[in-house]
Amino acid sequence: MTGLLHGQRAKFASLAAGILMLAALAAAGVIYIGGDEPSGAPTSSEKQAAVASSRSFVMHEAPQPLPGVTFDDGNGQALTLADFKGRTVLLNIWATWCVPCREEMPTLDALEAELGGPGFEVVALSVDRAGPEVVRKFYEEIGIRHLGLYIDASMQASFDLGAPGLPTTLLIDGEGRELGRLIGPTEWDTREMIAFLKNHPTSN
Hints:
By secondary structure, this protein is of the alpha+beta class. The protein has helices at 2-28, 44-55, 99-115, 132-142, 156-160, 191-199; strands spanning 58-64, 70-73, 78-80, 88-94, 120-126, 150-151, 168-172, 178-183.
């Protein structure tokens, strides 16, 4: 009788361990059924995009509305996000005194060179209180050629957008809604990041 109970307990323990393992694999997204990839399986670029997204961006399940924020361009003209309607915007909130911001700026410039156009723009929004001249000088020093100059010397936009620190980057669709955000610096000109920004749907 004792041997039978031990045997049943061993079976139950083995079954429970198997269930826990399957649950862990399912949570990690690594369970595959069947030997072949299903039709419509992600392409190589889409897989790279997923890697970039999982490592960096926190994407929303649905686009989120954003508050109205104002800032100036390099000529002192007041702008809002509505001025970029119809374009996907990568809004990078930064400052010249922020070392990680300075380090990632050339990669943002390279991203704008790669993807910039009527449907996409990197908007590097400086919150330097000293005004546009310090940004212009910094651009010249490191050879920024493709980014526009945008500034919010009041820093109000960063507060209104809930930026917890610098740099903070928002991916915004053509309707002015936030699709996701990335807190901290990254390399914006990698193949994975470019593929992610190209392939991710920008509006719903």
